Amino acid sequence: MTDFAQRRFKCLAAVALAGVLAGCATLGQGPSGKEELKTASDQTSAQKRAEIRLQLAAGYFEQANYPVALDEVKKAIAADPQNPNGYGLRAIIYMRMEEKELANDNFLQALKLAPTDPDLNNNYGSFLCQHDRIQESFKHFDTALANRNYQSPAGALNNAGNCALKIKNVDLAERYLLQALKLAPDVPETNIGLAKVYYARRDYPRSSFFMNQVSKTAKLDALPADVLWLGIKVQRKMGDEGAEQGFATQLRRHHADSAEFAAYQRGAFDE
User: Fold this and answer.
1) What pLDDT digit, counting tens, does each position of 142-169 carry?
2) For residue 32, what pLDDT is reported?
3) What are phi and psi of 29, to 5 degrees?
4) Span 171-177, average pLDDT
């Protein structure tokens, strides 16, 4: 896993853990039959015990102590089997352990309990995208985005846009990513995604603009080989030798064994 991919995973995990660490205010059914926000004062003693266990599990997860984190989640679920955060956190832990089937099962259980939860839907959409179940993923991204209580819609928009790029659906990717850009213009991954969209369309000035935004908001030495290679190709199209060499230097220095550097060496700029 590249440094950039690791940061993406950490962002996903942070979203998953946010509810746990914040005390997990959740939606429940009120006296009128409509959903209303449930807070700590509404919890039973068993639910409070479960939340404490989940906070402990989150701490162990952040320390990469996955066996102990799983054990704490198991105790949390035993105390409160109806808390979707327990299954959602266990899914994230299993993702980190590369236990694909177990992660999927726990996501489904969490969503059975909280089908409109935006963080769960965004996380499951990201999981599906990572495992090439891309068409399924959009349903979950869109469910997250439809939730008016969602605190971080830019993340789901960004994830959906970059997932669309995996199947070369540049129109769909552009739609999601431009919405993400409006909400959070300085996220490197959003700018990278848009640079890819416009390069695919041969709109090189626009692609160059977004690659320049990447240069302003991310360290070039932390970018993966495919992004540096894109930067090289874009700036070559624009005739900007200085910018091209800046990307090439980082590709040579940090990814000398990559397929992208091999392509650069043989001059395969239009493959």
Assistant:
1) 999 999 989 999 999 999 999 999 999 9
2) 53
3) -85, 125
4) 98
pLDDT for the residue numbered 10: 45
pTM of the predicted model as reported, rounded to 2 decimal places: 0.83
Q: Fold for 187-271, please state it.
A: 1.25.40
Interval 84-131: pLDDT, tens: 999 999 999 999 999 999 999 999 999 999 999 999 999 999 999 999
* HEC sequence for the chain: CCHHHHHHHHHHHHHHHHHHHCCCCEEEECCCCCEEEECHHHCCHHHHHHHHHHHHHHHHHHCCCHHHHHHHHHHHHHHCCCCHHHHHHHHHHHHHCCCHHHHHHHHHHHHHHCCCCHHHHHHHHHHHHHCCCHHHHHHHHHHHHHCCCCCCHHHHHHHHHHHHHHCCCHHHHHHHHHHHHHHCCCCHHHHHHHHHHHHHCCCHHHHHHHHHHHHHHCCHHHCCHHHHHHHHHHHHHHCCHHHHHHHHHHHHHHCCCCHHHHHHHCCCCCC
Half-sphere exposure of residue 129: CA atoms within 13 angstroms, side-chain side = 24
C-alpha 255 chain-centroid distance: 24
Each residue of 62-101: b (16+ CB within 10 Å) or e?
eeeebeebbebbebbbebbeebbbbbbbbbbbbbbeebee
Bridge partner list, 36: 28
The predicted pLDDT at position 158 comes to: 96
Check if the beta carbon of residue 234 is closer than 8 Å to that of residue 215: no
Q: How far apart are CA 260 and CA 225, in angstroms?
A: 6
